[in-house]
Amino acid sequence: MKRQVLLFVSLLSFGPVFGQVSYSIPEEMSRASLVGNIAQDLGLEIKRLISGKAKIYSRNSDQYIELNRERGVLLIKERIDREALCTEKALCALDFQILLENPMEFYTVTVQIIDINDNAPTFEKSEMNFKISESAATGAKFDLERAVDLDVGINDLQKYELKPTENFGLKLHSNPDGQKNVEMVLLKPLDREKQEQISLVLTAVDGGEPQMSGTMQIFITVLDVNDNAPVFTQKTYKATVTENSPKGTVVATVTASDADQGSNSKITYSITNTLDNVRKMFYVNEENGQVSLIETIDFEKSKRFQINLRANDDGGLTDSCKLIVDVLDVNDNKPEINIMSKSTVISEDAKLNMVVTMINTEDLDSGDNGNCNINTNIPFLVSSTSNNFFSIVTDSDLDRERASEYNITVTCSDEGVPSLSSSVTLTLQISDVNDNAPVFERSSYEAYIVENNTPGLSIFTVKATDTDWNQNARVSYILEDSSVNGVPVSSYVSVSADSGVIHAVRSFDYEQIKDFYFSVKAQDGGSPPLSSNVTVKIMIQDQNDNPPQVLYPVQTGGSLVAEMVPRSADVGYLVTKVVAVDVDSGQNAWLSYKLQKATDRALFEVGLQNGEIRTIRQVTDKDAVKQRLTVIVEDNGQPSRSATVIVNVAVADSFPEVLSEFTELTHDKEYNDNLTFYLVLALAVVSFLFVTCLVVIISIKIYRWRQSRILYHSNLPVIPYYPPRYSDTLGTGTLPHVYNYEVCRTTDSRKSDCKFGRAGSQNVLIMDPSSTGTMQRIQSEKSILDEPDSPIEITNHKKVKQTI
Ligand SMILES: *[C@@H]1O[C@H](CO)[C@@H](O)[C@H](O)[C@H]1NC(C)=O
Ligand SMILES: *[C@@H]1O[C@H](CO)[C@@H](O)[C@H](O)[C@H]1NC(C)=O
């Protein structure tokens, strides 16, 4: 500290006051610092001071200054603080007196205290807090606390400084009291979002040397104003969701931020779509912006959603964004099979690659639709004509006879993982084509029929089958034209067109025909018809229908043939041989000969096999001339048939002997002729009466028949049958008889007739009624007696056979 000693001595008056001295010292001098050399300044000697017991007299200042009598100086007794001593007075001085005794005198001393800059400007508070809305307008003023500097003058507060100066400046107002108010002025608008807390330092500076300052912190809290809208982090969000995701699945989260604070930054999210169904499908959590599903989502209905979202802060400011949700396909749809067109029937002669069915498939899922297949082992295949269009075509030849129906199962599967498929079954009928001829069950047929059958008898049945269907398989049997022995075969047999039953048209005679062939055609009903042939062989079986026929000896009514046996004949003499034939065959024609009756059984025997009549003993004279043998000829049929023949044997050595013997026979004949005459007469009478009656009856019948002619009409086929046998006569007469084969073709009974073969007049077998209808001879009425030396007539033997 610079000591300032202001020596001012004034001796204005003496008396009680002998002098006055002033000193000027800076404040805050340390203790014992010299204030002033009072002895020197007052002109007093140290001794006087001591002797005078100099002391300071003061009412209030003695505590600061003390008097050192020995040195004659004034010293600082206690540090002097001007501000404490004088407060704000600009002029500050200590006034005291120095009293001396012996003599008593006093001196006035004034010590002026000079200010030094020992006080810095100070603020009452070290900090000030403000809350200023960010919307505060520029120019707004905020009062600041003043700083105080106890120093005076230049040492007093001189100016303020505010730092930083970005938003605020200072303005000073001079108050009437000379004090200066300080204000803070908003120079630039605040932005809470940029700087919420502003810290300023206000510095008050004085003018002392060295300069001193005081500071105060100013804390400004910028209050929020809803001056910021929410802002989404993206304008467009993208998200994907797989279809069929469960409800509640979070699709995406949108986020908006608001730079404001508090409720001004409280964001509420919402969906703003109106027309579409987005709000039915999606839900946004209004607080956290999570977008989730509230419905199951179907790719097949919507593949993409655009969700418009809005963010609101509480102050009503908004922002919006889009959320694009792409739906991911899941293979949840089977392919759908549509039959575009199909044939239910296809001909078995269909060509290859003929389209049977056309199919279209559709899969609602995305991606490739996959492929279609059909079951294997059928003559069809699937070909793809273009995308999603398939056709089923024939792949190989069809044969209705092998398979008349196909079940085609079409299976279409997609290419998803796992793959889904669906199938449909089509039934396809194969229609028939006449591609199969009838086939006889056998390659040839043989049948037997016993002769003398009834015409119309069914012999047997041929059967042919046709593997085709319906009309194409309807087999008709047709007798092929051919001739048997020059006669059309149709006059032998007929074939029933429907049933294939072969009927005999006529009665067969084994003796005339033993077998014959013909051909039967089986023809189906197709167009054109197909046919096949089979050969049929009919074999006629023999029946024992013919008795043996005795060819020799020839029998006549009068039995006039006789064999001569000389009386000299030896044992075993061959008398004659009975010759018989049987037109049947086999057993039926195997003849045996037996002697039935004989005048003398002991004389003759008949060879069983050969019919030879031989003597079995020596002929004696006693033996009658006239021997009569009855030989029976039997065949071996079942039942057997037989014929008897009378063999007259004359046992004589000479012809006259025989003649005389047989004359009786002539008489007998005359007798017989008489008897015959009477019989014929009686018969004639009876016959006449009978015929008369017959004529009358027939006349009546004819009359009635004419009346009822229309009514009497029948279509029933009546096949009269006249088995061949000997016609009988009325006794004496003989009627010509031929073996007749009747061919009776009859459609109307009234027109029925049988044609009899005409008998050749000379080739007729004649029957003698007296010999039970078994004798035969030629028709010429020559008596054996007319030609006695040629008694045996066998001339027409061969012709008889021919007639047969
Ligand atoms: C085809 O299916 C039907 C009905 O299931 C069946 O009756 C028929 O026998 C089947 N046909 C073939 C050839 O499998
Ligand atoms: C059947 O036989 C007839 C005559 O014998 C002949 O003309 C025809 O060609 C034959 N048909 C067949 C299919 O054999």
TrEMBL record:
Function: Potential calcium-dependent cell-adhesion protein. May be involved in the establishment and maintenance of specific neuronal connections in the brain.
Domain of life: Eukaryota
Listed InterPro entries: Cadherin-like_dom, Cadherin-like_sf, Cadherin_C, Cadherin_CS, Cadherin_N, Protocadherin/Cadherin-CA
Domain Cadherin as annotated: residue spans: 61-123, 124-232, 233-337, 338-440, 441-550, 565-662
A GO molecular function held by the record: calcium ion binding
Keywords: Calcium, Cell adhesion, Cell membrane, Glycoprotein, Membrane, Repeat, Signal, Transmembrane, Transmembrane helix
One Gene Ontology term from the biological process aspect of the record: homophilic cell adhesion via plasma membrane adhesion molecules
Organism: Oreochromis aureus
Any single GO CC term annotated in Swiss-Prot or TrEMBL for this entry: plasma membrane
Transmembrane region(s): 675-700
Signal sequence segment: 1-19
Topological category with respect to the lipid bilayer: Single-pass type I membrane protein
Coiled-coil intervals, chain numbering: none
Name under which the protein is recorded: Cadherin domain-containing protein
Location relative to the cell: Cell membrane
